[in-house]
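4.2 Preliminary Data

To establish feasibility before requesting continued support, the project team ran the inverse folding procedure on a target of 142 residues. The structure was first converted into the token representation described in Section 3, and no sequence information of any kind was made available to the design step. The complete token record follows.
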């Protein structure tokens, strides 16, 4: 049931890439500052740019891939590999665990505003992100 809730709710918002990234950067400008192509720029002025849309698609594609793999123990190594790749690409840029946690908070805020984020849905999302973040943080520590 949780897996169904996770996948169903994600399918509702996964094409709102730009809006999701905008919500994250609006809530946590320190995250935006980690990306040289966006640092120091006015968020509203770059929201409709190709660079912003491209980066938003990368982020949402990562989440979509993790969510599509969720639910099968056979896919755990693939999710671990995705988490390791994310850690490898972000750690050298100084993206911290705290900033990944901020991203998660902003994502939850966005989800709560755009889907039916009832108790079972929140539980599903919490479990999925707890699992993924444990893998990500482990990879950041190695």
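Position-by-position output of the design step:
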């Amino acid at each position: 049931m949780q897996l169904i809730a996770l996948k169903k709710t994600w399918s509702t918002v996964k094409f709102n890439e730009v809006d999701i990234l905008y919500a994250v950067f609006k809530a946590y400008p320190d995250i935006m500052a980690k990306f040289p192509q966006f640092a120091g720029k006015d968020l509203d002025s770059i929201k409709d740019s190709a660079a912003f849309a491209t980066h938003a698609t990368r982020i949402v594609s990562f989440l979509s891939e993790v969510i599509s793999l969720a639910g099968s123990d056979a896919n755990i190594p693939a999710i671990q590999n995705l988490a390791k790749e994310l850690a490898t690409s972000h750690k050298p840029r100084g993206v911290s665990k705290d900033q990944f946690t901020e991203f998660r908070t902003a994502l939850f805020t966005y989800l709560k505003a755009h889907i039916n984020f009832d108790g079972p849905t929140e539980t599903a999302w919490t479990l999925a992100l707890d699992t993924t973040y444990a893998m990500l943080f482990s990879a950041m520590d190695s």
